[in-house]
């Protein structure tokens, strides 16, 4: 029976169609995109490779098996030239018959039209095609009675391919109908052989789903929107539903990674951070790196796919330009890869974790407040945290040192204000600049950090893999000016054009808070509100809250942040701007 995992109750009358391998009789779960496929527009394209004079009366599918033999349909296998037909034949697509040609790069179909009485070839031969690089599965289509598990009448073959609309990828089906088994077998074999040539496409994946992310929808998102596509693409997915914080880390430390072609996480930014950290930590363990010293990290062994199911999904948005699970799944299936820079965060010479972004001051305090109120619904918790932290807005007294990227490489956007600083030369030849003072917020970001609240990114001046980090320092100012600065993230105006904001393109940052005990004092203010089960352990020893990729990290002393170019590969593509319409935060 034709199973539609997204709409599993979709029974289409007495007869239904199944997609399966030609000689394997187990039915597979196909993705129901039929309603969307109907709306498909065919693209006009010039005819490839020479003239074709197919001018025959329109053929019905029923007539094809007898009239179209495999000989007349079979082309020579000529894989040298992209435009050279490998196989050519007649299929019914929709209600019309088409002359269909397979080359190494595409499947092209042209409607078969009767000759005009004057013998002219019709001028309206609209050609359509699908590039093989966009095809992720080919299946045999059969008609079966309800309940029939195998066999059934062969109807043709179906191509599953992805279509792009802006940053969004969507799955589509093209049904090539022909009742001839020989004919379909030839096409099926050729298509399978060509698709197996895409070596970048994963065959086996380790998948982590965080069932607690955001609105607890990650498992549903995976089961309904992603798993059916993986199955269609013949990808074996080894699923772990995480049971606690740290679960991913313990699995990644121990498991055999060689058997996988990639790791996938389904959840929010905290889940992404844990998986990225786990993958990078495992790579250091395998390479024998001592992470309790200043070391040069090795790259992660496997690419990471991110299926967004959180509330902000900053990393997914930065790499896909959109929060759309199907787009993310199709990037994984098609094997699109994007190297990204990552940071290491260390304190007192010991590695604390790997990640992409850090916020200290306002960003750290807001997250700490939200974490202590986990019992609240997510959006309410975030708004409340923002309001409370703004109401208690306090500058942090810090000593900040940074190692700028070499002059001339990417410093054009920098905005340096009047803060005094001293320069110290680094052993690598760079020049550390040190400044002291009061800061409301300090952000250090290796990726643009796109999200719906900041469509151009929290750090629009950096790129996914430009080998640098954006350092954004918001100095002490009035609350109203700081709110104006925050609001600009959501607008077209430059959020950095304030006298109290400084930006730098850097390779490394050291930050040492100089205020004693302020964080512990603040925690005690609302201790009575916190849920003892879910509240993080907040020490009163003067440690400071950092927001590292949306995860709360408490650091008692100096934090040392270094960027490592292209340390991790993500499944996806480099996009400069989020596609989603900006979301206004109602509380500011
Ligand atoms: N079963 C579980 N129970 C509790 N926490 C878990 C579980 N599985 C994973 N976690 C942890 O939950 C944390 C938060 O995950 P995640 O970021 O995906 O959700 P979120 O915070 O709701 O989403 P967002 O960051 O987008 O708001 C992660 O640090 C992860 O380690």
TrEMBL record:
Region of interest called Disordered, as start-end residue ranges on this chain: 1-77, 402-431
Molecular function terms, GO-annotated: lipid kinase activity
Membrane-crossing residue ranges in chain numbering: none
GO terms, biological process: negative regulation of oxidative stress-induced intrinsic apoptotic signaling pathway; photoreceptor cell development; regulation of apoptotic cell clearance; retina layer formation; sphingolipid metabolic process
SMART domains: DAGKc (SM00046)
Basic residues composition bias: residue spans: 36-46
InterPro entries: ATP-NAD_kinase_N (IPR017438), CERK_C (IPR045363), CERK_PH (IPR057465), Diacylglycerol_kinase_cat_dom (IPR001206), Lipid_Phosphate_FormReg (IPR050187), NAD/diacylglycerol_kinase_sf (IPR016064)
Pfam families membership: CERK_C, DAGK_cat, PH_CERK
Ranges for domain DAGKc: 200-349
Superkingdom of source: Eukaryota
GO cellular component terms listed in the entry, alphabetical order: cytosol; membrane; nucleus
Biased composition (Polar residues): 55-77
PANTHER family on file: CERAMIDE KINASE-LIKE PROTEIN, SPHINGOSINE KINASE
Protein name: Ceramide kinase-like protein isoform X1
């Amino acid at each position: 029976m034709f199973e539609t995992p997204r709409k599993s109750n979709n029974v289409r009358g007495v007869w239904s169609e199944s997609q399966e391998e030609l000689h394997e009789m187990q039915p597979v779960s196909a993705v129901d995109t039929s309603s969307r496929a109907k709306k498909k527009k065919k693209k006009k394209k010039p005819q490839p490779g020479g003239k074709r004079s197919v001018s025959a009366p329109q053929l019905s599918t029923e007539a094809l098996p007898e009239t179209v033999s495999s000989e007349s349909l079979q082309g020579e296998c000529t894989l040298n030239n992209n435009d050279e037909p490998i196989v050519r034949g007649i299929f019914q697509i929709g209600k019309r018959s088409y002359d269909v040609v397979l080359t190494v790069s595409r499947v092209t179909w042209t409607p078969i039209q009767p000759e005009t009485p004057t013998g002219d070839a019709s001028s309206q031969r609209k050609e359509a095609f699908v590039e093989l690089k966009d095809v992720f599965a080919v299946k045999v289509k059969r008609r079966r009675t309800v309940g029939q598990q195998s066999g059934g009448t062969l109807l043709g073959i179906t191509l599953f391919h992805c279509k792009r609309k802006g940053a969004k990828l969507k799955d589509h089906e093209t049904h090539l109908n022909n009742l001839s088994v020989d004919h379909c077998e030839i096409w099926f074999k050729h298509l399978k052989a060509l698709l197996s040539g895409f070596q970048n496409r994963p065959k086996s994946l380790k998948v982590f789903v965080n069932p607690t992310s955001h609105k607890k929808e990650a498992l549903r998102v995976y089961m309904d929107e992603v798993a059916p596509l993986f199955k269609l693409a013949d990808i074996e997915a080894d699923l772990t539903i995480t049971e606690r914080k740290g679960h991913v880390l313990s699995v990644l430390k121990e498991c055999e990674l060689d058997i996988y072609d990639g790791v996938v996480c389904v959840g929010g930014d905290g889940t992404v951070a844990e998986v990225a950290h786990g993958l990078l930590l495992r790579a250091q363990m395998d390479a024998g790196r001592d992470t309790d010293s200043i070391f040069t990290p090795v790259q992660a062994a496997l690419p990471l796919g991110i299926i967004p199911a959180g509330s902000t999904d900053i990393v997914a948005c930065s790499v896909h330009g959109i929060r759309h699970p199907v787009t993310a799944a199709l990037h994984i299936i098609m094997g699109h890869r994007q190297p990204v820079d990552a940071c290491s965060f260390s304190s007192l010479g010991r590695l604390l974790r790997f990640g992409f972004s850090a916020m200290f001051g306002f960003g750290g305090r807001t997250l700490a407040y939200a974490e202590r109120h986990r019992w609240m619904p997510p959006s309410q918790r975030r708004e409340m945290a923002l309001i409370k932290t703004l109401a208690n807005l306090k500058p942090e007294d810090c000593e900040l040192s940074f190692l700028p990227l070499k002059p001339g490489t990417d410093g054009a956007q920098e905005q340096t204000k009047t803060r005094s600083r001293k320069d110290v030369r680094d052993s690598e030849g760079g020049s550390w600049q040190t400044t002291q003072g009061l800061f409301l917020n300090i952000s250090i970001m290796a990726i643009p950090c796109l999200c719906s609240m900041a469509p151009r990114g929290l750090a629009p001046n950096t790129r996914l893999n430009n080998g640098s980090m954006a350092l954004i320092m918001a100095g002490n100012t009035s609350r109203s000016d700081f709110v104006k600065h925050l609001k600009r993230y959501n607008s077209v105006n430059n959020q950095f054009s304030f006298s109290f904001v400084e930006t730098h393109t850097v390779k490394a940052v050291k930050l040492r808070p100089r205020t004693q005990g302020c964080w512990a004092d603040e925690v005690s203010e609302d201790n009575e509100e916190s849920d003892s089960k879910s509240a993080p352990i907040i020490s009163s020893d003067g440690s400071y809250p950092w927001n590292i990729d949306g995860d709360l990290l408490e650091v008692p002393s100096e934090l040392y942040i270094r960027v490592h170019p292209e340390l991790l590969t993500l499944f996806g593509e480099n996009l400069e701007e989020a596609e989603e319409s900006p979301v206004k935060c109602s509380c500011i």
